[in-house]
From TrEMBL:
This is LacI family DNA-binding transcriptional regulator. Residues 19-73 form the HTH lacI-type domain. It comes from the Bacteria. Gene3D superfamilies: 3.40.50.2300, lambda repressor-like DNA-binding domains. It comes from Pseudoclavibacter chungangensis.
Length: 351
């Protein structure tokens, strides 16, 4: 039953029941209305009060009843995430970034995956998420085919696309692929390399296209020769085959690889071909896999901050809900991480 303490506050914990906001209020020394405002993200709460309520929530073990909240407020605070190619590092890491940001902000996430057939998979995924009562939707659409299917499906809630170069009329956010790739290639140029090759990812992938364009434009600005890139499938095996079989790589002194997984295969293939990294060929990747620092040699690469990306996604979706969808897209920075897989070409000195 509900009781009152000496100060007149209701202490609403039932014997053996789950903690309520009244228990949180009692521990925090505030009213239950204040606890409710903190839980719902009201801005007119002192930071010291907010922190005291948060500590009380942890102390009593209070968890929100999302069904009751939805009935009381007509809001589910549920975000839908539709992800294409969830097994790949970038899309999978983006999902985890969104989930972490949503939990911190008091939202829940429902996820649906797209199979090989993006056209039917995207439409089915959108409909599934709508039946789950999502208030807004994040679509991780790395392939142009999934982006085209999304345009046809027309979700009925504020929708943000996680994709590089998503095109006009689509609210989008992504890591700054072009700037990150440009810095990676410029690093090789600054070291004195003049024959810089590229192993691209599948060119149906928007991020792969952006990285390839950045490689090409950086070489053009430097006045260097452009040899058409190889194309892989993101796997180590693709990198290994490229390193063993590509005649163009054999005439280069450096290679920018579109992801770390293929870069691992390139390093292996170069070794089997009798070439050393970085003494004979410098190698740069993209992603900064958790294991990239343990490659032999440790890999120079471009780091994508998926936690920052998730926070940006959630912030934009919440703004879209508050402003009826009228917000701008954004990019988050990429960071070049220089390790031991790159060095000046033999017989040269960098500027």
């Amino acid at each position: 039953m509900r009781t009152t303490d000496a100060g007149g506050r209701e202490a609403g914990r039932r014997e053996g029941g789950r903690p309520s906001i009244y228990d949180v209020a009692e521990v925090a020394g505030v009213s239950h209305q204040t606890v409710s405002r903190v839980l719902n993200g009201h801005s007119n709460i002192r930071e010291s009060t907010r922190e005291r309520v948060q500590r009380a929530i942890e102390e009593v073990g209070y968890t929100r009843n999302s069904i009751a909240r939805a009935l009381a407020t007509s809001r589910t605070k549920r975000i839908g995430v539709l992800v294409d190619s969830a097994v790949e590092f970038g899309p999978g890491s983006t999902v985890r970034g969104v989930e972490a940001a949503a939990r911190a902000a008091g939202y829940t996430v429902t996820t649906a995956s797209v199979g090989e057939d993006a056209r039917s998979g995207v439409g089915d995924g959108v409909e599934y998420l709508m039946t789950q009562g999502v208030e807004a939707m994040c679509v991780i659409a790395p392939r142009s085919s999934s982006l085209a299917a999304l345009r046809e499906s027309s979700p009925r809630v504020p929708t943000l696309v996680v994709a590089a170069d998503a095109g006009d009329g689509i609210l989008s956010v992504s890591v700054d692929q072009r700037k990150g790739a440009s810095e990676a290639v410029q690093h090789l140029v600054d070291q004195g390399h003049t024959r810089i090759r590229h192993l691209a990812g599948p060119l149906d992938w928007l991020d792969a296209r952006e990285r390839e364009r950045a490689w090409r434009s950086t070489l053009e600005r430097a006045g260097l020769e452009i040899v058409e890139p190889g194309v892989g499938d993101w796997s180590s095996d693709a990198g290994y085959r490229y390193a063993l079989e590509s005649p163009d790589l054999g005439t280069g002194t450096a290679v920018f690889v579109a992801n770390d997984q293929m870069a691992l295969g390139v390093i292996h293939g170069l070794h089997d071909r009798g070439l050393r990294v970085p003494e004979d060929v410098s190698v740069v990747g993209f992603d900064d896999l958790p294991d990239a620092r343990h490659f032999l040699p440790p890999l120079t690469t471009v780091r994508q901050d998926f936690h920052a990306l998730g926070a940006t996604i959630l912030r934009l979706l919440v703004r879209a809900l508050e402003r009826d969808g009228s917000v701008d897209g954004a990019t988050t920075p990429a960071e070049l991480v220089v390790r031991e897989s790159t060095a000046p070409p033999r017989g040269s000195t960098p500027d």
